[in-house]
Amino acid sequence: MSSVPEIGDARLDVSVIIPTLNAARHLPRTLAACAGALEIIVVDGGSSDETVTTATQNGARVVHGPPGRGIQLHQGALQARGQWLLFLHADTVLSREWCAAARVFIARAESREGAATFQFALDDPDPRARRLERLVAWRVRALGLAYGDQGLLVHRAFYHALGGYQAWRLMEDVELVRRIGRRRLSVLSAVACTSAERWRGDGWYRRSGRNLGCLALYFLGVSPRVLAKLYGR
């Protein structure tokens, strides 16, 4: 994969940070869509498949560390060279317009003390996917709760001022966006399209219900460690 943007565009001062664990199957498309970023950092939590080889062959810099999405995301942030950090899941593919949308956001002075996420989509024609997309759009608009599979773009200084991601296996994304706050969270026009494989495998309603149940328990004060066990992570 080439990280060179389209002709006439300047490379964005953005470090894309992707936590991985046995993600070789999805990773090539995710990395290819990140063209235009200053660098791509894959933080691997001990994959036993071809994740590391796939990442290096597709132009990413690989950092090794303990498993746990919160730990991996924060480790990547500490290694980043860019002034802006884009946290992205390994099975999430950004639409072609992401660079242009990010460039507009970055150009605003107030964005340095805020964050941006992308519009959520699933790569499945099932009508249940469309209903879930609409529900996520409402959740983000009304509550400011953007999950990690929508990506998160934030200035490095603001990220560290917030304290960064907690070393959690679950809810690390919700915890950080709550600290950012709904009023400081923008939704970009570009799309982050995530694999629907987990919904197909677990069942559309079962997985969505489990996600909602974990979120409710989190707001009731159940610890992320307990939630991770309930979730099966």
Summarize the structure.
The protein has ten helices and eight strands. By secondary structure, it is an alpha/beta fold.
Class per helix and strand makeup: alpha/beta
CATH homologous superfamily? Answer: Spore Coat Polysaccharide Biosynthesis Protein SpsA, Chain A
**Mean pLDDT, rounded to whole units?**
93
Task: Return the CATH topology.
Answer: Spore Coat Polysaccharide Biosynthesis Protein SpsA, Chain A
Percentage of residues in strands: 15-25%
Summarize the structure in words:
- The protein has an eight-stranded mixed sheet with strand order 3-2-1-4-7-6-8-5, sandwiched between helices.
- It has a single domain (12-197), classed as Spore Coat Polysaccharide Biosynthesis Protein SpsA, Chain A (Alpha-Beta Complex), CATH 3.90.550.10.
- The chain is built from ten helices and eight strands.
- 42% of the residues lie in helices and 21% in strands.
- By secondary structure, it is of the alpha/beta class.
Question: What are the salient characteristics of this protein?
Answer:
233 residues; alpha/beta; Spore Coat Polysaccharide Biosynthesis Protein SpsA, Chain A; 8-stranded mixed beta sheet; 8 strands; disordered N terminus
